[in-house]
């Protein structure tokens, strides 16, 4: 969420929008926008974040985390047990 908040802040400032203006655009409070941007809001619906991002021309997506490559020790142990 922290990176999303930073992105939203950057996009908002690039369009010279205040937090209040952005909040009004999406039917939220200024405090909610501030909480999103500063990662201090306890719960925020994904639909709200998605709506804001879509408004800036971004899409909220989920991508798989890259599998961590095994270390040399792990490979040697695996080969030892085979």
UniProtKB/TrEMBL annotation:
PROSITE patterns for the chain: HTH_CROC1 (PS50943)
Coiled coil: none
CDD domains reported in the protein's UniProt record: HTH_XRE
Domain HTH cro/C1-type positions: 8-63
Protein name per the record: XRE family transcriptional regulator
Lineage of producing organism: Bacteria, Pseudomonadati, Pseudomonadota, Gammaproteobacteria, Pseudomonadales
